[in-house]
Amino acid sequence: MNKIFVMLVLCLVFGGGLARAEEWTRESPGQKAYYDAAGNLKRVLLDADRDGRFEAEEQYAGRRLSRREDRDGDGIHERRYDWQKDGSARLVEDRGKGPIQTTWFDPKGVIVKVARDKDRDGKPEITWRYEKGVLRQVEKNRGTWFYQNGKLARAELDTDKDGRTDRREYYRQGRLERSEDLGRSGKVHRKWFFDEAGKPLRQQEDSDGDGRMERLRVYRKDGSVIQTVDADLNGKPEIRERYAPDGRMVSREEDLDGDGEFDLRSGRLKE
């Protein structure tokens, strides 16, 4: 009976030590690695700046599983990497308040996608998508912007945030060149054309929804506008109006018989 009691006491006293002995460590400047009894790497603590504080911890199980980083020493791991079996990874940056940003990498470490959740509700307000490390697409609540060769090429926008695309923009060398306004049916009812400074040059409008752009507005450098209406699209407008920079109509001309000559004139015809 006494022998059994002694053996039990020895197990209780030394058992924990035996369990810990199955894990051993190896230290080098700025690094402390933990191994299991079989010599498999399990955990690594990293002190990159050699200040005596381990700001990063990596977990292993035959491969690297995760990495946590506390860069400012506040006790919060604001950066966490997680690796998949194929080598792809996800980085979550979260300081406990403010936006949460998540970045995805392919197996070669090239960035694939970035999502930022500003109000921490689990739904990102902005997402960047990449192809071979080059930005291809930006998604926001009010639209999507598409890039080619790293430059903005096209945008599809929901300007009133009703869940429907109502504006398309087209860019050349990153500069807005033209745009289209869409009606509720999805058809284009207005087209805009812009100069190199992004100011409107002219506008075409389908005012009656028949699919034809019968109304044309030309924007002049002095801020004035000339508007013509060619209802039958024969190249001979029935109406021509001139507007001052402040939006006042200053003249109106009408071709009453369709012969291409304006028969009725009112206002000042010359500015």
Account of the protein in words:
It contains 1 helix and 22 strands. It has 271 residues and is mainly beta. It has a domain at 23-70. The longest helix has 20 residues, at 2-21. The N and C termini lie far apart (119 Å). InterPro entries: Integrin_alpha_N (IPR028994). Residues 236-271 are annotated as: Disordered.
N- to C-terminal distance = 119 Å
Q: How many individual β-strands? A: 22
Strand percent estimate? over 45%
Number of helices: 1
Shape: rod-shaped
Runs in which pLDDT lies below 50 for 5 or more consecutive residues are: 1-22
SS class: mainly beta
Quick one: biggest sheet?
22 strands, antiparallel
- SSE order, one letter for each helix or strand: HEEEEEEEEEEEEEEEEEEEEEE
Cα-based radius of gyration, to the nearest Å: 34 Å
Average pLDDT figure: 88
Helix content: under 10%
Short description:
The chain is mainly beta and 271 residues long.
Layout of secondary structure:
Layout: H1 2-21, E1 24-28, E2 31-35, E3 41-46, E4 56-60, E5 64-69, E6 79-83, E7 89-93, E8 100-105, E9 111-117, E10 126-131, E11 134-140, E12 143-148, E13 151-157, E14 167-172, E15 175-182, E16 188-194, E17 200-205, E18 215-219, E19 225-229, E20 239-243, E21 249-254, E22 264-267
Antiparallel strand pairs: 1-2, 2-3, 3-4, 4-5, 5-6, 6-7, 7-8, 8-9, 9-10, 10-11, 11-12, 12-13, 13-14, 14-15, 15-16, 16-17, 17-18, 18-19, 19-20, 20-21, 21-22
InterPro entries: Integrin_alpha_N (IPR028994)
Region (Disordered): 236-271
Biased composition (Basic and acidic residues): 236-253, 262-271
